Amino acid sequence: MIYLDMDGVLANFFDKFAEKFGKKHWKEIPNKEQSIAELKGTDFFDTLLPFETTQQVVHHVQTVAQENDMDWGINSSPLRGDRDNSAFHKRNWLVKYGIMPKVENLIFTGMKEKFAINEIDGMPNILIDDKPSNIERWEAKGGIGIRWQANKDSFLDLQNRLKEAVYKRQDI
Questions:
Q1: 168/157 Cα distance (integer angstroms)
Q2: CA–CA distance, 124 with 116 (Å, rounded to integer)
Q3: With a threshold of 0.85, does the pTM exceed it?
Q4: CB within 8 Å of 53: residues ≥ 6 apart
Q5: 5, 126 in Cβ contact below 8 A?
Q6: What share of the chain is helix, strand, coil (3-state, %, to 5)?
Q7: Where are the domains of the chain?
């Protein structure tokens, strides 16, 4: 299984977050935790824009998964204390941009690492995520992590790293 994170990989969370609080960059927001808490109960995730590479990334992951007899899905963190609302609006976003995997491959959890290993065959799953701590926890549980951020890293880099991850998985 290849999992794609949403925020920072497919959806441009950080630019919209900065804009919502009147800043040019999200790092300028003084109290980030409080500002994130203010997003609870809103349709914020449904308002995010995709990155220029979003469709390309999804298509590539689908192709690689199919060519290697794997499946693909979404593994995205909801806001703390706002799981159902966040998941609802993230799912709406996926539908809006035509990125829906099979429903059973759609995961919204703050504990992504629970899905690092395929429960059926024991093989490591692959996670593409922009947050270092998510990758660290994923790999600590036996999964293969690719840290990739759409607005900083090249699509070619993702292609190469995903190819390496698939090879690594096959060697196990």
A1: 16
A2: 6
A3: yes
A4: 150, 155
A5: no
A6: 45, 15, 40
A7: 2-170
The amino acid occupying position 44 is F
* Residue 48 CA from chain centroid, whole number: 14
Spatial CB neighbours of 136, under 8 Å, sequence gap ≥ 6: 145
Task: Tell whether the model's pLDDT for residue 33 goes beyond 90.
Answer: no
For the CA atoms of 127, 93, 78, 63, the dihedral, rounded to the nearest 10 degrees, stands at: -10
Contact 17, 64 (CB under 8 A): no
In this structure, what DSSP letter does residue 140 have? H
Which tokens is 56 given? 């390309």
Say if residue 127 is exposed, middle or buried (CB neighbours under 10 Å; 0-12, 13-18, 19+).
buried
Tokens 């993230």 locate to: 90
Distances in Å between the Cα of 162 and the Cα atoms of 27, 33, 71, 83 are 29, 32, 14, 29
The string of pLDDT tens digits covering residues 82-111 is 999 999 999 999 999 999 888 899 999 999
CATH no. for 2-170: 3.40.50.1000
Q: Which residues are CB-neighbours of 154 under 8 A, at least 6 positions away?
A: none
